[in-house]
Amino acid sequence: MSRDGRLLRACVLAVVGLGLIAPIALGLWQTGRAAFGILPALGRTEWTLQPWHDLAALPGFATSLRLTLVTGIGSTLLSLLLATGFCATVHAQMTPAASARMLTPFLAIPHAAMAVGLAFVLAPSGWIARVVAPLAGWDRPPDWATVNDGWGLALLAGLMVKEVPFLLLVMLSALSQIAVAQQMAAGRALGYGRGIVWIKIIMPQVWPLIRLPVWVVLAYALSVVDMAMILGPSNPPTLAVAVTRWFTDADPAMLLPASAGAILQAVVVALAVALLWSGEGLARRLGRWWLRRGGRGLSAEPGLWAASAGVAVLLAAGALAMLSLLVWSLAWRWSFPQLLPQSWSLEPWATAQMGWLRALGNTMLLAAATGTLSLTLAIAWLEGEDRGHRSRTRWAEALIYLPLLLPQIGFLYGLNVVFLRAGISGGIGAVIWAQALFVFPYVMIALSDPWRALDRRMLHAAAALGAGPWRRLWAVKLPILLRPILTAAAIGVAVSVAQYLPTLFTGAGRIATLTTEAVTLSSGSDRRITGVYATLQAALPFAAYLAAFAVPALLHRNRRSLTGAAAA
Amino acid sequence: MKLAALALSLTLATPALADWPQTLAAARGQTVYFNAWGGDARTNAFIAWVGAQTEAQFGVKVEQVKLTDTAEAVTRVIAEKAAGQDSGGAVDLIWINGPNFLAMKEQGLLHGPFVAGLPNAQYLDLGPTSPASVDFTTLVEGMESPWRLAKFVFTYDSARVDAVPDSMAGFVDWAAAHPGRFTHPDASDFMGATFLKQALIELAPDPAVLQQPVTDDAFAAATAPLWVWYDALRPNLWRGGETFPENQSVQQQLLNDGEVDIAMSFDPASTAAAITQGLLPETARVFVPRGGSIGNISFVAIPYNAAHREGAEVVANFLLDPATQAQMQNIEVLGSFSVLDPAKLDAAAQAAFAALPTAPALPAVADLGPTLLEPHASWMTRLTAEWAARTTR
């Protein structure tokens, strides 16, 4: 390994260690201390379990916990089920490019914007109800809790609208590494039904490839705040929302039980992941027995169709939600039971111009900064691996996934305390740093596989022609990998735009982004202005994805092998 | 006690009235730094208008220091006092509210009493229980001058509702006749808490105790009828009273969507304003319970070390001018209700108010009924905690 390669690796490790792991660890430590009564700022310096007693005694605590478990675990398992069924049904009929095109809008739109749209589509006075109204003879909306319902069903559905496309994408990319057609043919020839082949042969191979993303989905669903505030129940809300409210309570003494709640949130995620893991072990044992029994069971087909129908309904609801954002932003009066606005206007865009221009500016600045930072770091990491001729160690993999598996609320409060001490809280720098904690992992995950799949013979040829490691990086790797690099950047932009809690906490509420504004406005009286912000919020990542498609096509228009997904 | 203090403040202040020409002379050429919450574009525009008027009429410029929180101005004055800067302070005039006023008054950070010395104070009702004399149960004693009125009102859609409840007690029957068509914001929200306070004032056996700091016994006695009333009301609320809108804005949206028939606000003009913004149907209207509703007045105060005290007094006086108040009440300008006592206005001033553009949804001052005093702040804390314990499972 060259000296310069070692230096690069050391640099990357130092940046990741100090910039990524240290803040999270310090944040967790601060939150953990407060959970056990240590909060010097309030003059609390003694270890005690009182915060936990206080937490358990808060009104609605048990309900909050139950809601979190039901919506988090329920949405993940249902999404997994639907995505699997859908894959089994349509995998043979759809090219990867077509499915990517279909899924991109759903992946690009931030959770908060999707939630705002769904809240309108599902509400008793919303779009679906307006379609039904003339048939059912409603002159006023029914008094049904179709959003913010006490069971969290609207939140569950909202999470699924975002999770199913993500899982589909992950599964489709995993399936590209498996000889599905041959195995299916062999299975069918042996008399197994299509669904059974899928369950017995394909899925056991897919699972190890999608295990980590499923954990990320599970952790996210259990600790989501913005979507739960908009679609979830409010009295009491889910645990993550309740904890966020306690952290921002006017009474600073609430910080102690809030910290206990934040730690509990982390424990809940850890337990849920452990549950999934043990479930996997059980399934492995039962599955082997089931496989060896050799049952042909043709009856899985209706299940597959039901799953596909479920996915179609979810995607349709998501598409309607996105459309409703745009329509609302162009409406003037749009009252129940009108299907379309009675009057249209650009007024919402004009009146809120000062606000959204500033929020858009902040959002773009943050996205550009975190995207560039994360991309540079990811490329440096991968290049360091290349030069060291090493593949990634398991602990390094775990390091990357850590910020995605830990609930944000678990360490963001503590992180902000650290930032406050360092005197950087409330500034744009602090927000960039906090967002990068979540942007970097996604960029890294998106870039790793294409980077490793790069045809090494190109590099050997370049080396044989006398190109050093830097020249090989600039002249060969980066141009060939332009498309996956831009895709990773677009994912980074989407993640950055969607960040709510990190922006809110470390920005001290002073850095207004499209997401923080959209979430705030969603509890206001003007759905049209909310529509403006949510539309922009969805448009920004979408534009980034478009650029990731268009730029390589344009730059490499005379390099046929580089325009397509050759390296991706 | 209250009366004695008031009398004292009046006697102390009276000489100032004679000095008014001197004040005007001293104020000429000053620039008043008006520290005011800057979150509302219409209010900011109104303050800019005030500055243009005072500059033209009295040679006093107004520079608005736009605050995100009034406490910022209080902190600045405290810091100046700590630094020994007892004159030439940076803050000349503050738009102030209850707790901040109490803090500044207790720490001797305010100039005054000066209100009775303002010529336009003659149009105010400064009686001992008038909202112009008591700010969140703190006696004003001439240390701050009123400028705009906030008053609790209900909004309803007249296209869907024939008869509205005429008292808080009446909401029980109304909701029983129209199940699911009424709700109130979550009591952790200011407006939700105000709804409960409004009911508490009407239902408490002895409303006078609400002006004192809360005690366990007083709370139990005063709120017992409230909870009986609420338990009867709640099952017929929107979504069975299991969930509540987060704040008044969300409830206004529910009213706009037709999910409920009644919403509430702390600004009698907000309904008319919302109609012009397309946020409520043209048929939305305002009502208050027969016995009146909770109100409070926004004040301006002058720090003890203000660099431009005379200019600040001129601005405070200008804000009380009937013409200024009429301009402020104009729905096309700010739509904030006048703090003046209509009975004390001369014919010309009354005509100015009568000539204001009206909107069908804009209530007349006479329709708003008496203004009830806010309970002591400690009641609100207890009330919201008790509500949360009762409704959150």
From TrEMBL, chain A:
SUPFAM superfamilies: MetI-like (SSF161098). GO terms for cellular component: plasma membrane. GO terms for biological process: transmembrane transport. This is Binding-protein-dependent transport systems inner membrane component. The chain crosses the membrane at residues 7-29, 67-91, 112-133, 153-175, 209-231, 262-283, 304-331, 364-383, 395-415, 427-448, 480-501, 532-555. PANTHER family: INNER MEMBRANE ABC TRANSPORTER PERMEASE PROTEIN YNJC, MOLYBDENUM TRANSPORT SYSTEM PERMEASE PROTEIN MODB. It is found in: Cell membrane. InterPro entries: MetI-like, MetI-like_sf. Residues 61-277, 360-555 form the ABC transmembrane type-1 domain. Keywords: Cell membrane, Membrane, Transmembrane, Transmembrane helix, Transport. It is a multi-pass membrane protein. PROSITE patterns: ABC_TM1 (PS50928).
Automatic annotation (TrEMBL), chain B:
It holds the Pfam family SBP_bac_8. Residues 1-18 form the signal peptide. It comes from the Bacteria. Keywords: Signal. Gene3D superfamilies: Periplasmic binding protein-like II. InterPro entries: SBP, YnjB. Transmembrane segments: none annotated. This is Extracellular solute-binding protein. It comes from Rhodobacter ferrooxidans. The lineage of its organism: Bacteria, Pseudomonadati, Pseudomonadota, Alphaproteobacteria, Rhodobacterales.
